[in-house]
Amino acid sequence: MILWEIARATGLIAVLVYTLTAAWGTLLAGRGVQSPKGAVELHQVLQSFGLLLIISHVVALVLDEYANVPLRSVFGIDSRPSMVLGAVALWLAILLPLSFALRKRKKVSFRFWRGLHYFAYVFWGAAMAHGLWLGTDTGNPIILALYGLGIALVAGAAAWRFTGGAPPKAAKRTAAEI
Ligand code: HEM
Known about the structure:
This protein is mainly alpha-helical. The protein has one domain. It has eight helices and no strands. The protein has helices at 2-28, 39-63, 71-74, 81-104, 110-117, 119-134, 141-162, 169-177. The longest helix is centred in the N-terminal third of the chain and has 27 residues, at 2-28. The chain is globular and about 50 Å long. Protoporphyrin IX containing FE (HEM) is lined by residues 7-8, 11-12, 14-15, 18, 54, 57-58, 61, 67, 69, 73-74, 83, 86-87, 89-90, 93, 127, 130-131, 134-138. Protoporphyrin IX containing FE is lined by residues 7-8, 11-12, 14-15, 18, 54, 57-58, 61, 67, 69, 73-74, 83, 86-87, 89-90, 93, 127, 130-131, 134-138.
């Protein structure tokens, strides 16, 4: 039972942390705003913390007899779409940080990196949908309000980012550094 509690808590905190990561990353890439010192590092620290939480979430669920999550579900082999969404989010969360590593080593162009990085929105959407759909705690009005706030935060940041036209050169530089 304790494993199930851990799984729920880590799942919820992961969604919260990734919501902040997505909103912060979107703001950093937007409209040529000069990033303050350490801003890109904060984005990466949040992302790493989120990944740690997701791994704990999945390991706890697989180990917990009560949750009854077979190992094949981790690879997306499950008849429940809500579980498949979780697996999509998990593998995107693992793959996305690799885009940082490739970009840092100049193995891929900025254009390619940015294309890949847009999958962060797919990841975040899948994680939100998975949590809302499957979560025991979705029934709690406070948790539901937190999901709503998170959606508003990322949607607001994206609206600000994408309605401002193409980011000027300074922003492109910042995004390329991420
Ligand atoms: C293969 C990957 C995954 C599997 C098999 C999985 C499985 C599950 C299961 C069985 C539950 C229901 C727990 C409950 O009874 O509340 C759950 C809930 C949840 N999961 Fe996942 N999950 C996966 C990936 C993820 C990822 C990547 C995230 C977030 C980034 C995430 C976030 C959540 C959240 C927020 C909840 C709701 C917790 C609650 O409200 O109690 N999961 N997951």
